[in-house]
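Hi support team,

I submitted a single chain yesterday and got back a structure, but I'm not sure I'm reading the token output correctly. Could someone confirm the output below corresponds to the sequence I sent? I've pasted both exactly as they appear in my results page.

Thanks,
R.
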Amino acid sequence: MTTQPAGDFVPEWSDGEKLRKIRRHLGKTQEEFATALGVKPTTYSAWEADRNSVREPKVIARRLKMLAGVPMWWFLDSERPSGPDGPDGGENGGPGWDRTSDLPGATATVLSMRRTSEGISDAIQPRPGIAA
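Hi R., thanks for writing in. Yes, this is the structure output for that exact sequence:
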């Protein structure tokens, strides 16, 4: 006897669960990840615990793309884009964001990211006028 699924099952996660998955994948603490995203640690902690919602999800999605390579559509609960005008900001060949310094409120520019045997290594440079 076999059982057939009633339909396609697509698991859904809250924004907090998604942020936690990305942060853990990168091996960062909440404080380190909050700093990388350009938000206060208390703000990030509230997001991850689903006590507060992300006020500017597109901005955070762009930062996640830069920090972890996560497609914007995944964080924004959108369909996978089919072209350069999709919700990923041009991930499939169109114009897109290539520097976190272009984002409102960004506190640092990601200079490089590379995979190493220890995980992901990144070089972050504080933006001028912002204390490190």
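A quick pointer for reading it: The CA atoms of residues 4 and 10 lie 16 Å apart. Let us know if anything else looks off.

Best,
Support desk
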